[in-house]
Amino acid sequence: MTGTGSAVITPEAARAVIRRGLAISAVALLGVAAVYVLALGFTPTEARQGLAQKIFYLHVPAAWGAMLAFSLVGIVSALYLWLHDPRLDLFAESSAEVGLAFSAVMLTTGPIWAKPIWGTWWTWDARLTLTLFLFFLFVGYRALRAAVGDRAERARYSAVVGIMGLLLVPFVHVSVYLFRTLHPQPVVLKPSAPSLPWEMLRTLLVSTAAFTLLYVGFVTTRYGIGLLAETKGGDDAA
Amino acid sequence: MSRLLPRPLRLVLAVAAKDLRLELRSRTALVSALVFAALVLVVFNFARDPTAVSATDLAPSVLWVTLAFASMVALNRAFHAERENAALDGLLLAPVPREGLYLGKLLANLAFVGVVEAVTLPLFVLFFNVDLGPALAGVVAVAVLATVGFVAVGTLFSAMAVRTRFAELMLPVLLLPFMVPPLIGAAQVTARLLAGRPLSELAGWLRLLALYDVVFVTLSTLIFPAVVDE
To answer: Which of A46, A105, A182, B113 suits a disulfide with A53, CB 3.0-4.6 Å?
Structure first.
């Protein structure tokens, strides 16, 4: 069940996938650069938060990318256990690694914003805790993959963790929410969410599109690298 | 075993009985887990400043962190015996459906963790001078609800972890995120029970714990074949 039986992937084909991934990533990075220009030059500064609010245009799309990656890992894992197609496993692996990078961006940009606005780097708010757990689940998934030698076994084990993780997320969210509402936090300076002015929404949408494209580009590249590793005989022969 | 029970149930009980018999004859794992739990309690006692934090404020979290760690030790051992001499292959060849195998393992682990909890609770009362009194029945009930959930996930994960490198480290890394909802729930409910709060305050938590049990016992049972079948 290694997939090298009928559909043999040549190194050239794998390199073509990598090239396509890099091209998409390059376009996406240009998009992210455009977001910087748009956010700093053409979007009004938020009245109360000032310049600190600009990080919103990176933080929220990164969080979106991490959630997207995580959901796809869960869904594709379920498909893998059903169809046993090794390409699905490779996709899940790629998506999890990119998701790990995105959630690292989300977890670093968040506190940078929170320190001037909330006055603290970290608080045990429901959403913060949830994203921290997304990160931990990605790390656990990655650690498990590294610790299993046999290829088919690694695919099955990580698929199990991927599915279980997706189901865990709502439970973490509800329990942290119950925890918080019963134990109110010190009141933090949190802006009540007003409907976003058009200029801000536009920048956010452009940024979300750029980050989604970045996700596609990164995953494609990583997928191609995985294919290339397979043509080289891989690190193991299942 | 009683002929009156339906066959699937007998198979589950046979698997559980096998594990428990093994445990009772060696006793090393059980004794180690119990000593471990007692030691964690002692360490906790010295990690707090008795003049600053009262024992009752800290008690619920101490109890549940101790039980979580002790369960982790217990769960690490769940599939250990099956690794030796390819015993798992023998089990898989037995005419027991995979789901029955999982449920039998789950039952044995629940019994094991249950014994550890039953011994830890009085020790906890003794060391931390907590008056359980009328809260006892409630604490036992919430312990059952929380334990079923994380032992269900732990049984599934330990079947995988035992066949990885760094098995002893892999299980906590994978399992601790899954222990968080039951542990938060159990600690919160225990705190409220000790404070004598009305039952209505606990309803949300109890529902969440019960839902967690249903979802993860079902899912783990269904997904277990994917772990053991080549």
So the answer is: A46
